[in-house]
Amino acid sequence: MMTIIAILAVGVLAWLAWWWFEWSQVYHPRANIQTTPRSVGLDYEEVVFVAEDGVRLSGWWISAPQARGALIYCHGNGENIGDLTSLLVDLARCGLNVFLFDYRGYGRSRGWPTERGTYRDARAAFEYVRARYNDMESPPVIALGRSLGGAVAAQLALDKPLRGLILESTFASIQAVGRLLYPHLPIQWLCHYRYDTLSKMPRIQIPVLIAHSSEDGLIPIAQARALYDAAPGPKRFVQLSGRHNEAGWFRTPAYLDALRSFFHHALSTPAP
C-alpha cells in the first residue's frame, strides 16, 4: 500500500511540476506599469472593466481627433500596457482611437492568466469599445495582436464582429512552438495550452494583415506563412526585420505604411 501511495504522490508532484513549467513558459505577467501615455504627450483615460466571469481588468483609452475607428491592441506574453507607450504616437497619427488592456494577472488587472481567461478578457475589451460606440452591432473596430496576443486576437475575430485583424509575430499554435523548443518531448500529449491560431484562420472572414520577421528565432516565419495561407482573404503579408522582440514598424517603416492602408481598407469595407 505504501508503495502505491508513494507512486501516486510522485505522479502528482510530477504533474504539478510540469503544469507550473508549462504555465511559466506561456505567461510572464508583471504588475509594474513603467510608463503611461502621458510620457509621450498623449492624454488618456484609465479604464476599469469587467470580464464575463467577474474578473476586474485594467486598460487605457486614447482618443484620436476625428477618429474613423478604434484599435484594440492585444499584447505579448511578457508585456503589459506600460511597455506599449512608444507605439501610441504612431498609432494616434493613423486616425484611430486606441484601447490598450492588460490580461488578467498583468499590470493592474486582477486574476490569474489562462487561455480561456485571455479570450474572455479580449471579449470584455471589445464590449468596452462597443459601448464607446453606443453599442453598435458592428462598431468600426480592428484588433492587432502581437505574439501571444495574435492568438488572442484571432479568437476575438471569431467571437466578435471585428472589421479587421492584424497578427504580428504570431505563432501557429503553442504546440507548434513547443515541438521546436522541445523536439524530444511528446508535446501533443503534454501540452495543456493550445492557442491554436492556425485552425481558426479559415473561419476568419474579415481582412487580415500578417507581419513577421525572417530573423525571428523564436517563431519561424514559416508559421506566419502557414497562417497567411490558411486565411481566406482579403489578406496581406508584410515581412519585417529584427528578432522576435525587436520586429515592428520601428525596424520596418514600410509596415506602418501597410497598417495605414489596411486601416483605411478594413474600415471602408461594409460590416459583414
Low-confidence stretches: none
CATH architecture: 3-Layer(aba) Sandwich
Strand arrangement in the largest pleated sheet: 1-2-4-3-5-6-7-8
Count up the domains.
1
The rounded distance between the terminal residues' Cα atoms is 63 Å
The main pleated sheet reads as: 8 strands, mixed
Rg calculated over all Cα atoms: 19 Å
Approximately how much helix is present in the residues? 25-40%
Enter the CATH topology name: Rossmann fold
Q: Please indicate the percent range of residues in DSSP E strands (runs of 2 or more).
A: 15-25%
Structural class: alpha/beta
Q: Helix-strand pattern, N to C?
A: HEEEHEHEHEHHHEHEH
CATH class: Alpha Beta
What general outline do the C-alpha atoms trace?
globular
What is the arithmetic mean of pLDDT?
A: 90
Number of strands: 8
CATH superfamily placement: Alpha/Beta hydrolase fold, catalytic domain
SS field, number of helical segments = 9
What brief labels describe this structure?
39% helix, 8 strands, 8-stranded mixed sheet, 272 residues, Rossmann fold, single chain, alpha/beta
Please provide a written account of the structure.
The structure is a single chain. The chain has 272 residues and is of the alpha/beta class. The protein has one domain (2-268): Alpha/Beta hydrolase fold, catalytic domain (Rossmann fold, 3-Layer(aba) Sandwich). It is 39% helix and 17% strand. The chain has helices at 2-26, 85-93, 115-132, 148-159, 174-181, 187-190, 197-200, 221-230, 253-268, and strands at 45-50, 56-62, 70-74, 97-101, 141-146, 164-168, 208-213, 235-240. It has an eight-stranded mixed sheet with strand order 1-2-4-3-5-6-7-8, sandwiched between helices. The longest helix is centred in the first third of the chain and has 25 residues, at 2-26. The chain is globular and about 70 Å long. The protein starts with a helix and ends with a helix.
